Amino acid sequence: MEPHERKPLRLKGYDYSSERAYFVTICTKNRTDYFGGIREGIMGLNEMGLVAHECWQDIPKHFENAVVDEFVVMPDHVHGIVFTAVGDRHACPLRQRQPRPNHQKIPVIIGSFKSSVTRIINEKNFKTVGDANLHPPFAWQRSYHDRIIRNEDELNRIHRYIRENPKQT
Q: Which CATH number fits domain 20-164: 3.30.9.10, 3.40.50.1220, 3.30.70.1290, 2.60.40.10?
């Protein structure tokens, strides 16, 4: 692999439109604390964090066979579980009214989530994160991390990890 080539982050040959549960982690660019802070093990969301929280909860409104499960918005990332079901052939970017034909794949869902959060935050023109001005505007890290949840035990471990994540920092 050439030094400037990027390694693909998706599992080669895997059908991401299949009915599964996925554990997803999405980080802000440069791991900047855009979404609030943790105090005494409790995540306190600021206005930008509330946007990310609401957009995550809204995923099933825009992807009829997607279900969001346990999730947490942290200062610089989001952890969440998404269940997908086979059969849906409509997906649309969040915050748009008209669905467009597409397969319901995790990359489409997460791309729509990231795009919506970015657009809403930048439209609201939030000026500061702590004492620092937002230059450049809010952005996500390239891509995201996903893990296909293989069984109930793993699902339970991930639920616990997500719930306890704010207490770990």
A: 3.30.70.1290
